[in-house]
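Let's sit down with a protein and look at its sequence and fold side by side. Go ahead whenever you are ready, and we will take it from there.
>
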Amino acid sequence: MVATASASDGSAALTGRRLLGLYLLLGFSAGLPFYMFTAVLSLRLARHGVDVAIIGFFAWVALLPTFKFLWAPLLERWSVPGFTRYWGRRRGWIMLAQLGIFTAMLGMAFTSSDESLPLTALFAVALAFWTTTLEIAADGWRIELAPTQAEQAPVVAANLWGYRSAMVAAGSGAVWVASQADWTWAYLAIAAAAFLPFPILVAMRAEEGARGRAGALAAGLVASAFILASAIALIAVIDWAVLGVASAAGIGSDTNVTPFVLTVCILPFLVLALLLPRIRRMGPDAPARRSPSIGPYVDIFWRYGFATLIVLGFVSAYRVGDVLALALNHPMWNELGYSLESIAVADGVVSLAGAVAGVGAGGWAAARWPITRALLAGAIAAAASNWVYVWLWSVPIADWALYTAVAIDQFGNGMAGAVFVVYLSMLVNPRYPAAQYAFLSGFAFLFARLLAGASGTMQKSIGYDGFFLLTGAVSLAAVIFLPFIARIRAREPDEGVQTPVPVFAA
């Protein structure tokens, strides 16, 4: 990769319907792989008889996006050879990520028997890594293109419509193919669908003044092959090291590893919190604020001060319901005895209708209401989306009951998700859109994904009904923070330093 001084991607021409269409496409390209290494993988493992505690451990693959702040600065500072020369830095990273998603999905397809769970985990982690990289690049670009709350709301809605539609396509499509053939063909089909945005991006308009589409594409493909091979090798080494350490420590399927995982995950954020007093005293020339690697994250604590801790507490609770429902709703449907055909319908048209309505409601609320009122409505909807599974567990098995529960689930989480993305986007300093959004959104799902990793163990203790009752309550508990959230404002920039301050709707 090579350094670049420009972040331009021809953004001036992307307005109105073109911008909404682009983010509908980008949301679709990110939603397909995400659902395949989360909900679909948990169902696949359950159908292969893997213990629910082990399935819970696989939910920790989704922890990887929590740490996307570790490589997000690379996307702000470096570019992909070949691709960037013609299509711009943001699109260059998006194209590389899509190639990574395609190759990782192929790996999951040809290991779909799950006879080697470490190999399954390897390709699941690779898929999570490239999906997250795609989201980092797309989120940074979105914040650059739509800097205000009113502008963000429709773009976020379009992005989440694409995202949720892709999750539906991945869920219903993959499950249906698996029911007719096997899981290998299911993953191959979704891999082909996930690759469709790549040629569309290749056909898009070039950067102003750029020439040589064919040469840039060829150079980008060569560079991508090297980067993808290096990434899978690095992931394999890390996986091998982690498994070796775990084995040497006597950690097995029955070991409660949640405290260890929590300690590792929370440490970077704890260090920043402890350094808050010192960060607040830093001047504009302080090395930590000017650093390309840690400067974007120091800036968050510098601008919001101790209120940062309130923000992080709020965001860590707000999306718990959605994440935990995704971890165990498919295994619950399987245990209740619903057929793959019924699950495919639930993940298909039913889920899509609920998600589209929910995202639309969330986008409307974020554009027209004060942000705290919109967040309150989203929290109530998210709690209801979990509590509906308590009802589903108690009623006789019937397809209409499953479809009703899924529709309510998708509406609630779609609404909460749309409002939440707008809120996080408005917290970001436009100087560091990709890195800071990666940090905030990563932390937002840290607590939830840690709980997801222990979800199987929790379910064994309190049952599915107790599990979903608890997760809904945690989602609703986030409203405790809202009176404090309403009063938080970013610190004014240093004299002579042009740092835009986010403005929320009054």
Q: What stands out?
A: Residues 1-8, 495-506 have pLDDT under 50 and may be disordered. The CA atoms of residues 439 and 478 lie 19 Å apart. The chain is about 75% helix and 0% strand. The two ends are 43 Å apart (CA to CA).
